[in-house]
Amino acid sequence: MAKKTSYLFKIASHPQEFEQIFRLNHETFAEEIPQHDRNEQGVLIDSFHDQNTYIIALKDHQVIGMISLADKRPFSLDKKLGDIGIYLSDIVNVNKLCEIRLLSIRKEYRKTKVFVGLLRLLHHVFIEKGYDGAVISGILREEKLYKHIGFIPFAHQVGSHGAIYQPMYLLKDRILLSEKVLPATVSFLPGPVLVTDNVLDAFCRQGFSHRDNLFMEMMERVQTRLTDLTKAKYVQVMLGTGTLANDAVAAQLSLLNGKGLILSNGEFGERLAQRAARFQLHCQVLKKEWGEPFSEEELRTALNGGVEWIWYVHCETSTGTVIPIEHITKLIGDKPIKQAVDCISTIGALPVSLKNVYLATAVSGKGIESVSGLALVFHNHAVKPNEQLPPYLDLGLYHSHNSVPYTHSSPLLAALEQALTKDFTKKFSDVADWFAYTYKRLTDAKFYVLPAANLHCSPILTVCLDPALSSVMIGDWMKKQGFHLHYQSSYLQERNWIQISMLANVSIENTEAMLQIFFSICSYLQQLLDDNREALAN
């Protein structure tokens, strides 16, 4: 699928992998370190093999590094020292220990990212299995490295000349968490996004009353920045999620007398239709297959059907498909049709002009890159309170109280204010570059991608995988490699889709590193499928 290959890290599970493990074991612990006798076969099967979980590094389907983990007593160290509980029972629950052994990396890969990759996957396995600590026999020449990771010596040294080891332990609260050893994961999720340190610092400051003048002044600054960003006249900042924002829009639409039109070509368009049913809105739903764009003829016909309002998703998060606001505005022309737009996945990620929009929604925790928890509703007309509506959904109450009719959050607002100081013009350019680059890399590698046609820039790309490749398996594997993709939502799993997004600041370099691993994983799994088919055919 791709010419470039990357290191892959996984739990050994196939016979050919174990065969290579036995050979690497011999190369390291018989030929390089004289711990075991050499043999003509060049194969060394560890005496604890049946208990070991092997974490391996692969390059071009070849095992180039490994480390093992076991949790069944007695350990190798028990046989060398006697009961290690005598040494450790006052320090850690010895019944929730594991032993880490057989660290081996081929010489030509020892100054690469192989060691860090093995540790990262080891960390995942350690956490998944719920261990309280780990023990190792650290070879003396690498004692400094083990201490750097966090291991602490205990007991006397063991082994023989040429292969002397220091028993060491590591507790759960320090297990492989050093940032110097394990780089931070890179998130390609559509939300919540990873926030910058300055936004996090603003969020962590001591809160103060929403009735304080300082709070109201901060609210006015935030509103000004948001309206400047979007060209809307007003914005209300509500304490809640995008669901609340869209419910507030539905509540306003329920006050209109005329018929409406809802566009649905994905999960969130369907949610608008479901919300309309709950609010008993008088409307028709123009529905397409997920990811399929609406034709100009379909839209023009629907808009000429005597509708008073239209409600749609600007960027359908479930697919990445964009319905351009300016295109709908042009089709509406001089007809008095009000636009309501879900901009939750676009404001802060793409240039968005709301000057011709009746109502629009966004949130703090996506493209704006702040902490989740604030819902945004934009409007260009003065909204009056209406006693027919539930108070918490009454946009008019927020408008008449400058967004603070009820208790609000100063930490969330401070974080949003800080996030709004970024250079969005640069970010819009970065997203456009990222989209073009990633779209081309995926389609050149013969993946089917949504949006189906590279017509409109989107901060989200959806990879529609071959049914033989599991999106869950690939997503789990990518996460253990240090890259978070979006695959856990039920609507994605039902379709075997996996998503890559750039709602936060993700570089082309990080994207390329992620894509290389993604391609390598897919190639590896495809090769296994092909091998299995060939074996069955024979």
What is the CATH architecture term of the largest domain?
A: 3-Layer(aba) Sandwich
CATH homologous superfamily title of the largest domain: Type I PLP-dependent aspartate aminotransferase-like (Major domain)
Named CATH topology of the largest domain? Aspartate Aminotransferase, domain 2
Terminal residue distance: 26 Å
How many E-type strands? 22
Strand content: 15-25%
Structure description:
This protein is an alpha/beta fold and 538 residues long. The protein folds into 3 domains: 8-183, 3-Layer(aba) Sandwich (Aminopeptidase), CATH 3.40.630; 187-191 and 424-537, Aspartate Aminotransferase, domain 1; 197-419, Type I PLP-dependent aspartate aminotransferase-like (Major domain) (Aspartate Aminotransferase, domain 2), CATH 3.40.640. Helices cover 37% and strands 20% of the residues. It has 17 helices and 22 strands. It has helices at residues 15-32, 76-81, 85-88, 114-129, 143-149, 197-203, 213-230, 242-253, 267-278, 296-303, 325-332, 395-400, 410-419, 424-444, 471-480, 490-493, 508-537, and strands at 8-11, 53-59, 62-70, 97-105, 133-139, 152-153, 158-160, 163-171, 186-187, 234-239, 260-264, 283-287, 309-313, 315-316, 321-322, 338-342, 359-363, 374-379, 448-450, 460-464, 483-484, 497-501. Strands 1, 2, 3, 4, 5, 6, 7 and 8 form an 8-stranded mixed β-sheet that branches. Strand 2 (53-59) and strand 3 form a beta hairpin. The mean pLDDT is 93.
